[in-house]
Design goal:
Layout lengths: L1 E6 L2 E6 L4 E5 L5 H7 L5 E4 L2 E4 L4 E3 L5 E2 L2 E2 L4 H10 L16 E4 L1 H16 L4 H6 L4 H14 L7 H4 L1 E4 L5 E4 L2 E7 L2 E6 L2 E6 L24 E7 L12 E6 L2 E5 L5 H7 L7 E5 L5 H4 L2 H4 L6 E5 L1 H15 L10 E5 L6 E3 L2 E7 L7 E9 L2 E8 L5 H7 L11 H11 L5 E5 L20 E4 L7 H6 L8 E5 L9
Parallel strand pairs: 3-6, 6-9, 9-10, 17-18, 18-19, 19-20, 24-25, 25-26
Antiparallel strand pairs: 1-2, 2-3, 4-5, 7-8, 11-12, 12-13, 13-14, 15-16, 15-27, 16-17, 21-22, 22-23, 23-24
């Protein structure tokens, strides 16, 4: 039996004799800390490259510690399901075993629903139409979602296994037991061996980011894009893909990922300076910084389509155990219309539905200057043309997409802009830089990856550093539109 301290509030306990490798504590970016320490590593199983890692998670008794989410198990579970291969059809690690969540009854219930929503978003045509989508289009979206989900929306209990813990010892697996000693203090035992973990943070102690950031001055241009993140949910060195739009001196976030406050502090930006947030979708690497914004001294404006908002708020509601209606007390909610330019005090934004396992929008921003518009396109969590082409079917009774819709997505993704940031993370649910070789945008920023760019990718676009700003209209031309 072995115990390793990973970071504040996170431990690793392994009990090889029982086949247990337990991640104790799962705040934001906990997976990245495990990667840094080599507790998650690449391996090959029966000729298939995949990862090692935990097969169980011990949850904190307390959902929020020192004003930070303490239980964000989505990415640890996704790592098990997809990167270890537990859920992938035909994968050698898909043996029927499921990720095991261990904790108190209330935290298990909250995390189960949160993981379910994080994996699928809205889960029926009825929920999609309730967000204002016409029935015919809702059917198309559900066919797409089911294709990403390998034709089945699994129930929570089919995704994860749970083990409720009280004050008496409870068997986890194969003769290994766990006992709750006191709040957030647990004892693991196997035979005569035992180890204890304490998941409590000290006063004023914080959950740590897996990376360090320098200090940068964020200039307030008339219209510019500050690159506040280029990594993905697995990148141990950089913040997740995100941007900050400056417009007429105001600051707007695009998405709110892990360790948001860490990034804002490095840019010299206070959370109370944020005017609003534009939200693309509800995956944790774009979502779990929302609690930072909820602590602002004003209601930050929340911009999203009703479809994305419904997905986000259902997940957030599960996570914090509050009804969705409560979020209007924290955010000033502004719904955006799909496929239309929505005017926000002179800054226009056009959201377009984009294929992804959860409800997702790509965003186009523009403002009029001189003889035309300056345009920024933010394409977070897109899918590659190769993946989408395999989904094409001429049978409307089958899950997938039509040839017509596939061509429409290609047209949208390649729509020219002055500046375009694109997801090139690869795999089943992320983009491919090669798709943008024929893109006529003036500048491409390649983003949402944990890897160094290849030479071929560097030919296609740039990988911007943290804090670098692309200025579309400089402040020196003052704040009066011509």
């Amino acid at each position: 039996m072995k115990k390793i301290k990973v970071s504040p509030g996170v431990f690793w306990v392994e009990i090889p004799e029982a086949g247990l490798y337990i991640q104790c504590g799962c705040p934001a970016d906990s997976v990245k800390h495990l990667m840094r320490m080599g507790l998650i590593a690449t391996q090959e199983v029966k000729g298939v490259t995949c990862e090692t890692g935990p097969n169980a998670i011990l949850l904190s008794d307390i959902a929020i510690q020192n004003e930070r989410f303490a239980n964000l198990s989505e990415f640890p579970v996704l790592q098990m399901l997809y990167r270890q291969g537990m859920l992938l059809p035909g994968h050698p690690n898909n043996t029927g075993a499921r990720p095991l969540l261990i904790g108190t009854e209330d935290q298990l219930k909250a995390q189960a629903e949160y993981i379910y929503r994080g994996n699928y978003g809205l889960t029926s045509e009825e929920e999609i139409t309730a967000a204002g989508i016409p029935p015919e289009k809702a059917r198309m979206m559900m066919r797409l979602k089911l294709k990403f989900a390998f034709d089945h929306i699994l129930k929570t209990e089919e995704l994860v296994e749970t083990r409720a813990v009280g004050d008496s010892p409870v068997e986890i697996r194969n003769g290994a037991f766990i006992r709750r000693v006191s709040t957030n203090v647990y004892e693991f035992s196997l035979g005569k061996e035992s180890v204890s973990v304490d998941l409590n943070l000290l006063p004023k102690q914080e959950f740590e980011a897996s990376y360090r950031l320098g200090h940068y001055e964020a200039r307030r241009e008339y219209f510019s894009i500050i690159h506040s993140g280029e990594g993905d949910g697995w990148d141990v060195h950089r913040p997740c893909m995100a941007s900050i739009v400056t417009f007429q001196g105001k600051l707007y976030l695009i998405d709110a990922g892990p360790n948001l406050l860490h990034s804002l502090n490095s840019l010299g930006i206070g959370v109370n300076e944020i005017e609003g947030i534009f939200h693309t979708h509800a995956h944790d690497d774009h979502f779990n910084g929302l609690t930072v914004l909820m602590r602002s001294d004003h209601r930050i404006k929340y911009y999203a389509t009703p479809l994305v908002r419904a997905s986000v708020f259902k997940k957030l509601s599960a996570l914090i155990g509050r009804d969705e209606s409560v979020f209007s007390t924290y955010f000033d909610i502004h719904d955006l219309e799909f496929d239309a330019w929505n005017n926000i005090d002179g800054l226009e934004v056009r959201p377009e539905f984009s294929p992804h396992p959860v409800e997702t929008s790509i965003l186009f921003f523009r403002t009029l200057w001189g003889e035309g518009y300056r345009i920024y396109a933010h394409l977070a969590d897109i899918s590659s043309f190769k993946v989408l082409e395999k989904m094409v079917t001429g049978d409307p009774a089958k899950n997938g997409i039509s040839e017509e819709y596939f061509n429409e997505v290609k047209r949208l993704y390649l729509e020219p802009a002055d500046l375009k940031k694109i997801d090139i993370g690869g795999g089943l649910i992320h983009g491919d830089a090669e798709d943008f070789r024929s893109d006529f945008s003036q500048k491409l920023i390649l983003s949402h990856t944990e890897r160094e760019l290849t030479d071929a990718q560097k030919e296609i676009g740039d990988s911007s550093s943290f804090g670098v700003a692309d200025v579309l209209v400089p402040a020196e031309q003052n704040y009066t539109k011509p």
